[in-house]
């Protein structure tokens, strides 16, 4: 009986500890975009713009992460553009750069990438990707 109570309390404490750790990890990942700097914006076609941000606040042991967003034109100053980009999912996140952009006759956009890719969005329906080093 005593062992059962100890195990239940240990399980409760362990569960609460894991929830707290997960909460800190989620908050830490969400706030990482607060330190992004807008590096470039480029018109791709009549309706699409490519925005590039840089995250370099990780220190000496964390590489510079570049985020590329494909969206319609965002008007305003740099802070307003960054605030809007924070609400969007990046097209590509990685340690590298887009080396080529091609637009086909049917409007598909193809990107050539150089470097390591951290993540690719699955929500962009009109973009095709070509990844080459």
Task: Describe the fold and architecture.
This protein has helices at residues 2-30, 78-86; strands at 37-43, 49-55, 65-71, 92-103, 109-120, 127-131. The radius of gyration is 21 Å and the shape is elongated. It folds into 2 domains: 1-34; 36-131, no CATH class. It is α+β, with helices and mostly antiparallel strands. A 6-stranded mixed β-sheet has the order 1-2-3-4-5-6, covered by helices on one side. A hairpin with a 5-residue loop joins β4 (92-103) and β5 (109-120). The mean pLDDT is 81.
Could you give a quick summary of the protein structure above?
The protein contains two helices and six strands. The protein is of the alpha+beta class and 133 residues long.
> Please, how many helices?
2
Q: Give the strand tally.
A: 6
Rg, Cα atoms, Å: 21 Å
Helicity, as a percent range:
25-40%
Write out the strand line-up for the largest beta sheet, numbering strands in chain order.
1-2-3-4-5-6
End-to-end separation in angstroms reads: 63 Å
Largest sheet: 6 strands, mixed
Q: Which parts are unreliable, with pLDDT below 50 for 5 consecutive residues or more?
A: none
Secondary structure elements and pairings:
Layout: H1 2-30, E1 37-43, E2 49-55, E3 65-71, H2 78-86, E4 92-103, E5 109-120, E6 127-131
Parallel strand pairs: 5-6
Antiparallel strand pairs: 1-2, 2-3, 3-4, 4-5
Q: Which characteristics define this entry?
A:
6-stranded mixed β-sheet; 38% strand; 2 domains; alpha+beta
